[in-house]
Amino acid sequence: MLRLKLPVRVPTSVAxxxxxxxxxxxxxxxxxxxxxxAFFIGWALEIPSGQVTSFDMVVYPVMGSMLLLLELLxxxxxxxxxxxxxxIIVGASTFFFLKLGWLLYLAPTGTDLQAQFTETLFWxxxxxxxxxxxxxxxxxxxxxxxxxxxxxVLAAAFMASTIFAGNIDWGVSYALVELNLAxxxxxxxxxxxxxxxxxxxxxxxxxxxxxxQAYYDxxxxxxxxxxxxDELERRLAVARADGGRVALLYLDVDGFKVFNDxxxxxxxxxxxxxxxxxxxxxxxxxxxxxxxxxDEFVIVLGEVETAQAAMFAARKLQAALVxxxxxxxxxxxxxxxxxxxxYPDDASDGATLLRHADSAMYRVKRSGKNGVQRYRDDSxxxxxxxxxxxxxxxxxxxxxxxxxxxVFQGIHDLETTELKKxxxxxxxxxxxxxxxxxxxxxxxxxxxxxxxxLGEWVLREACRHAKEWEALSGRGIVVSVNVSAMQFAHPxxxxxxxxxxxxxxxxxxxxxxxxxxxxxxxxxxxxxETLKRLRHLGVSIAIDDFGTGYSSFAYLRDLPIDTVKxxxxxxxxxxxxxxxxxxxxxxxxxxxxxxxxxxxKIVAEGIETEAQRxxxxxxxxxxxxxxxxxxxxxxxxxxxxxxxxxxxERVPSKTFVN
Length: 658
Known about the structure:
Shape: elongated
Number of domains: 3
CATH superfamily of the largest domain: EAL domain
Number of strands: 17
Strand content: 5-15%
CATH architecture of the largest domain: Alpha-Beta Barrel
Number of helices: 23
CATH class of the largest domain: Alpha Beta
Radius of gyration: 42 Å
CATH topology of the largest domain: TIM Barrel
């Protein structure tokens, strides 16, 4: 059921041109001998017919022999087609022109000119046809047009000479006029018809090319998403009518992103073409294989009766990839993760069938890759939600950034409650799903690697808002951006920071980078080097969630940081001392004591009651944020809270991705 070697798609113009030339070569090989035979028969019957001429007795055997030589050349060489056609056109045109000239001016007295015309010159249309059969022999069209003009001039000159001499032969003149009129009309009709056919052919080729581009993937020649959707709906309609099944396999090439990033996009494209060729060899005659995007392929099985048959087909595709791929002299091992969904058992329509198969494949990727799984309602619903969120988040970043916004929460002085900073929080509002909480989409962004692009967007937006506030108030506002471990470790992170500052003409002193405690606990030397570069640039550094991990006060001393943020978990019970964990009180007090000696600022998160504020103030914390002071608000409302005016003292602000 599964094995079919599909032909590689050849571009339409190349395939049709090759077939066209081969057809004409075969036609000429069959009919050139008849042309040669006509010359030899004419030569043999010249004397018995009573129409013998010295011209025919010499030229007929020469023309017949020339045609046989061209036949031999064409039979041994396909590349000789153009030369043979041109040789016939030039040779035949020359023969007919010379024959007419000889008859009109050199033929002996008494020669029956009209009989000679009908004997030979009715072959002229063959030359016209030959001049249009090959695009490569277009010079032949110039030859036949020159030949036609030459025949008209030759006939006109003869008729004029007989008129002036007073011995005009009206029979011959009539024959010459009819001959040239017929030839001229035939040439015009042939030319017009061939051009019309060429126009039709070009139009059809363009339509085929448009269809190919619309329905086939340019890289692999496989069906694309549009054709997959059409064909899938057609097959589902047949299955509904017949009570049959349709199985869909969703295949993802494992590790392709690493391969692509390491060896480059050209090597990645070459690998995808090689993988698609290998997989096509295992696709059945009634199956459809399509490339979705990137390294994802879909195979729709046309004849499947059981889930075991679909599983067997998937395993066979995996087995086809076991043999390494040889690219540029190097062997590359490739595996695949495959998800299976079956109509009507797992889905009732094409879109759901694709989505469920994708979810099953995604579960394979998360569980170690290089496997096959069928869709399961009990486990893949959550995976499908995450997969869809990942795709939609990527779409929001690339095509619909208006779905992403920043809201702001104030950070206040615990002594005076004066607004000192603002924290900007990332929000995502999907047009169909509504508000997607950061607790759901941020982990997905981190797992998928989208957090790097997402973090860059937040960094640029934060700098843009800070510059706007500065323009409105005449004072600078510090923006602190919460950076993930993946984003911070990216080789281009430092350049991203400098670009964001330069693009918005923001002073580095007005930007603060916030890192979680876990980032600074691993690879301290590398982290310290990057932090020093940022500090040298003028950017401030803050450590978030201090105390929730394996904190070491030595980091507060050794790292180039400016601010420490105490996690909300240590603040929660501080307003009720009888219930507050003693270690929380001790930790906050210890952090405050060390920070005072190291000249660090302390920000306490999650303050919700006045009692909490009073305890934290007594422990030595400088700043705090929480619902006690303000909830996150849009940018427009924040301006009112900040009471911006050019004469006020410079107020810092802070931005986070949460």
